[in-house]
Amino acid sequence: MITRVTEQMKYFLMTENLFKVQNKNGRLMEQMASQKRINRPSDDPLGTNTVMDLRTMRASLESYGRNIENAKAWLSVTESKLSSAADILLAAKELSLSQSSATASEASRKSAAATVSSTIDALRALANSKFGGRYLFAGSCPDADPFTAVPGAASIGAAEPSAANVFDGDAVTSGTYTADRNKTYAVRIVTGGALAAATYQVSSDGGKTWGAVKAGLVGDVAIGDGVNIRFEETGTEQLTSGDLFSLQALTAGYCRGNGDEPAVEIGKGNTFRYGISGESVFTDRDSGNVDVFTVLDNLKTALESNDATGIASQIDLLQGGYDQIVRSVSRCGSRVEILETAQNNYSALDLQLTELMSNAEDTDVSQLLIEYNSHEIALEACYSMAAQIGNNSIIQFLK
């Protein structure tokens, strides 16, 4: 079978090939302008997936890097405040040494008592320091100064419902707090319904970990350490799965914060606790052995009473408080080292990811120029051929 090549077919093939060469030439010009081999997913679908994965990894590294920088800044301020606090306690120890001697007089001790009063105020200001609008030593209690001017009694705070709760009744707390540390309790409803049928879980660390599921919320429900909570259905909505209630329980003393340390994610599944607990620094709770505000208050009382024995009894305690704060300063330094090591590792990994991305999406400019010049010659030839074919007519064939 003989196929006849018509003029229409010739023109169609000519224009199709011309468009192909023009499109290729346009893509080469785009690559030369962006210096990237992949400018849209259709350029290389597999390569695009690789580049997107690498960009996601780099974005994660950038997020971790910001977390590390923020944590380092927090630790830097914390270390500065603690160093100042250590200096204050050292000065108080020197003062107690001088005023416990037989050469000290009642007048000098009363004058020293006024100095200790100022010392207490200065130390409390440091203990209540903020950074970025957050208390450095409050743990997870951000609403009030973590250290008060006078010691408070043990107390159980009101139950605070979550904003997302459905239950519109009351949650009332009661009891006598018996623990030796400040804690944040949480009660989470697992299965909703009537009080007798509802199930719940209790957390004593603000919701980080949860106890076993229990049933029955009728009357006063003991949630631990002498703390009770009672639910009263005063509205129309019953307890619903996911309803959450939290409360603060405080021991007697100056500290109104808790021992929680702020944490941040510095890697996938790597949560790093960068803060220093106010309880461990200034109290005899957690890892602390000396309540420095109690010691200073006792020193002030002894000075005002001209009690040389009482003054002398505070010297070793002041040294212990000083050592306690210095250990916390060292903890700041060691945590900064950990963060810097992670930061350096991420910097090296970021360079590797950048190189992989470059290999995947960047173009070889010299090779691209050679290819562009070749296609430019082909494009000019196509234009010339098209012009010649366009000039063909039946008149030329009749000549």
CATH top level of the domain at 61-149 and 259-349 is Mainly Alpha
Q: How is the main sheet built?
A: 6 strands, antiparallel
* Average pLDDT score: 85
Unreliable segments (pLDDT under 50, ≥5 consecutive)? none
Backbone structural class: alpha+beta
Helix content: 40-55%
Discrete helix count: 9
**Using DSSP, what is the number of strands?**
15
| CATH fold group of the domain at 61-149 and 259-349 | f41 fragment of flagellin, N-terminal domain
CATH architecture of the domain at 61-149 and 259-349: Up-down Bundle
Which features characterize this protein?
399 residues; 3-stranded antiparallel β-sheet; f41 fragment of flagellin, N-terminal domain; 6-stranded antiparallel β-sheet; 15 strands; alpha+beta; 9 helices
Explain the overall architecture.
- The chain is an alpha+beta fold.
- Among the domains are: 180 residues, f41 fragment of flagellin, N-terminal domain; 96 residues, no CATH class.
- Helices cover 52% and strands 16% of the residues.
- Strands 4, 5, 7, 8, 9 and 12 form a 6-stranded antiparallel β-sheet that branches. Strands 6-11-10 form a 3-stranded antiparallel β-sheet, with no helix packed on it.
- Helix 1 runs antiparallel to helix 8, helix 2 packs antiparallel against helix 7 and helix 3 runs antiparallel to helix 5.
- It is flat and about 125 Å long.
- The two termini are 31 Å apart.
- The mean pLDDT is 85.
